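[[Per-residue structure]]
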Amino acid sequence: MFISQAYAQAAPAPAAAPDSFLGSLGSMLPLLLMFVVLYFVMIRPQMKRQKEHKAMIDALAKGDEVVTGGGLIGRVSKIGESYLHVEVANGVELQVQRTAIVQVLPKGTFK
């Protein structure tokens, strides 16, 4: 009563396989186009920002005024291999990783 009857149907004719290389390339073209767009919209700008950040960190010098990732503002007092000493107040120094520096401020910003 609740069971529908199943009717056998003839299987549809298989689609003709593309005989040429262009036929298979045409089916992959949208996927390749998406990857190219993704590269130019997301990956390449990120790589550019990373290069700029690395150049900024490599150019740090004693006396530069910086902002850390946590929002602390201070003046670089010592530079080590992978750490910096940042003076945030008179007599108060913090040791931070070089990669934690987000921005170098113009001279005279930090008093």
